[in-house]
Amino acid sequence: MNSYLNALGILCNLGATKAAVAEALFAGNDSGIRPEQGWIPNHEPPLGSVQATLPSIPDTLHHRDNRNNRLLLAAALEIESDIRWAIARYGHARIGIVLGTSTTGIEEATQGVGAYRRNGAWPADYHYSHQELGAPAELLAEWLGLSGPCYSISTACTSGARALMSAQRLLRIGLCDAVLCGGVDTLCRLAINGFHALEAVDLQRCDPFSKHRRGINIGEAAALFLMTREPGPVQLLGGGASSDAYHMSSPDPEGTGARKAMHNALFHAGLDATQIDYINLHGTATEHNDSMESQAVAAMFGSDMPCSSTKSLTGHTLAAAGALEAAFCWLSLTDARPERRLPPHIWDHETDPSLPALNLIDIGSHLPAGGRRYLMSNSFAFGGNNASLILGDPA
Predict the structure, then answer these.
(1) Most buried one in 30, 73, 153, 351, CB count within 10 A?
(2) Would the pLDDT of 248 be above 80?
(3) CATH entry 3.90.550.10 includes domain 4-392
(4) Which of 130, 316, 329, 345 is labelled catalytic?
(5) H/E element holding 246?
(6) Which contiguous run of DSSP H or E holds residue 388?
(7) Helix ranges restricted to H, the chain
(8) Which residues does the UniProt record annotate as the domain Ketosynthase family 3 (KS3) (predicted)?
């Protein structure tokens, strides 16, 4: 059973539409990572915050009004005509929703708790539902009047990738004829200070795979796909997952779970490693992740495979990362230019001699001409939770 990613709505620090994001992405424009005050006491961490004006939540859904849901709604509005087409074709009960998230509306909830502690009363706009993990999926279901399967996945940084895999499964087993799937997360003090407490935040621009790498920058994003069995511009060929449970926050240094996820994705897609044309690396710029991932990728694909981490452009968008970076692969495959550009790896070009060599591509890199092309996107999360997706040209 074939699954196609027929439409994409996207919003991140690079832009508020597919066209704007693609222009900044392929140009390697890292100006969207900016120092910001007010998140970490006495520091101004570089963050990938969305600058676009976000749409208002409809009055009938005022209880769903938070930044996370506004970000998601903006992505949904970009493909509203495609969604309405699917509703008319399949019916409200045959369309599912699967989203990855981790922050939901926790920033608004944190502000509400702070106000309660200061004033002894909850703010009028406080709703516990803001922080529920299912809230983003429920927003879309209520807005669109959908009654198919509707849920969220929260497996940290693999959430968005796993949402796509789960959506594909809903189509395969016949529960749905179309699925809205992707990921959304917004900046919040809880996550930013949590990573800072783990000494995983770089207070300068992050540098994936550099010998000077010091940690992540954090960003926010929403990426929403309409997935159906109807032939479309991009095919989701395979997905692989694993859970090695090596450590609560550190990856298995040998990359065993990462290799298994990539192997499973290749098996699911019916491909071998030599057929992959590009890999979007998880590439967080933390010491241990980059070490693990470079070993895993080099072992499976060698040192010539074109690859890049886009987190120096967007920051790490947490639960949205897997969907956002799959979206970057979608943008490459659907690029209007004949050469079909690839996302560049923006860094200081200071290689770490302790890591296996990787072919980290520059601005201007593109897919080879002729034939079907296959792109892989990796996501590796806390707890040893690993996911890998393969997107490609339709058959």
Answers:
(1) 73
(2) no
(3) no
(4) 316
(5) none
(6) strand 385-392
(7) 18-26, 67-78, 80-90, 106-119, 135-144, 159-172, 189-197, 256-269, 287-301, 311-314, 321-333
(8) 1-393
Per the CB < 8 A criterion, the answer to whether 34 and 187 are in contact is: no
SS3 category, 182: strand
Partners of 235 in beta bridges: 4, 392
Q: What tokens appear for 308 in the block?
A: 């890049």
Mean pLDDT of 86-90: 98
Which residue's structure tokens are 């996207």? Answer: 10
Q: What angle do CA 347, 193, 248 make, to 5 degrees?
A: 85
Closest-CA residue to 192 (of 202, 182, 183, 207): 202
Tell me the sheet residues that pair with 279. Answer: 307, 376
Reading the block at residue 317, the tokens are 């968008």
Burial 89-123 (b: 16+ CB within 10 A, else e): ebeeebbbbbbbbbbbbbbbbebbeeeeeeeeeee
- Rounded to the nearest 5°, which phi and psi values hold at 321? -60, -45
Identify whether 316 is a catalytic site residue.
yes
At 125, the pLDDT band (50, 70, 90 cuts) reads confident
Task: Assess whether pLDDT exceeds 90 at residue 188.
Answer: yes
Q: Tokens at residue 195, please?
A: 């990573």
Secondary element (H or E) of residue 394: none
Which residue in 12, 157, 188, 206 is the catalytic one?
157
Q: What is the pTM of this model?
A: 0.97
Q: Which residue has the higher pLDDT, 248 or 181?
A: 181
Sheet containing strand 218-219, edge to edge, reads: 34-35, 46-48, 218-219
For residue 345, indicate whether it is catalytic.
no
Alpha carbons 183 and 202: distance in angstroms, whole number: 24
d(CA 144, CA 137) in angstroms, rounded, equals: 11
Residue 226's H or E segment, with its range, is strand 221-228
